[in-house]
Design goal:
The protein is an alpha/beta fold and 259 residues long. It has one domain: Alpha-Beta Complex (Spore Coat Polysaccharide Biosynthesis Protein SpsA, Chain A), CATH 3.90.550. The chain contains 10 helices and 10 strands. Strands 1, 2, 3, 4, 5, 6, 7, 8, 9 and 10 form a 10-stranded mixed sheet that branches. Helix 8 packs antiparallel against helix 9. The longest helix is centred in the last third of the chain and has 20 residues. The two termini are 32 Å apart.
Length: 259
Amino acid sequence: MLKVSIITPLYNCSEYLEQAIQSVVSQTYQDWEMIMVDDFSTDKSIEIAQRYAAEDSRIKVLQLEKNSGAAVARNTAIEAAAGRFIAFLDSDDKWLPHKLETQIQFMQDNDVAFSYAAYEKINEQGNAVGKVGVPERITYYDLLKVCSIGCLTAVYDTQKLGKIYMPLIRKRQDLGLWLRILKQIPYAYGVQEVLGQYQLRSDSISANKLSAAQFTWKLYREVEKLNIFKASYFFAQYAVNGVLRTKFPRLARSLGVLH
């Protein structure tokens, strides 16, 4: 088997962290390491992580000396990673038990350097409230228009790509990484089967969307260096697609924005 390094940033996530870790421990694919980087949490997150690390040598815990943001935490974990494959799982999300086995086999069978998968959204009671389907393949320009890659499903192959890191911005750094990868290869490929569960949170959804939009613009202009015309074009696509996906999912599916 080929080792997978699982990248998990921690910040005040004690409410959900155990279920995330358990979903990794329960994987049918066993050749993995889970690298959790605590971003100066003030709750019990670090204690929970260290308890699991004491019980399973595949789980490693690192601590940042100050709160630095998810990009720094994830990049610290990527730097420490020893696996051929880099996978991402946030501390409040979960994987289905066959996630790694299915996705790594898909990548090997199809000679894929970067993959993603469909996933479910779950509410705070743990009930599924909707499936997020994915396109069969995505280009760099597709991704500028709408981010169809859920961070909890992304996996890339360091043997094919080397280690690639996230841009140091507070939000949308995951999209920044996917764009960096797709500058090296023509396509990322999607597993159509649901392989993970994304945790919906009740805290300020509208404010989060506004902030995400602001950081998407920042990503286009400051990281991707798109000129004002290209940035405006892709941001308009991003905004329209976001409204379609949220408010008019049936229309979004007919237009290929949702899958």
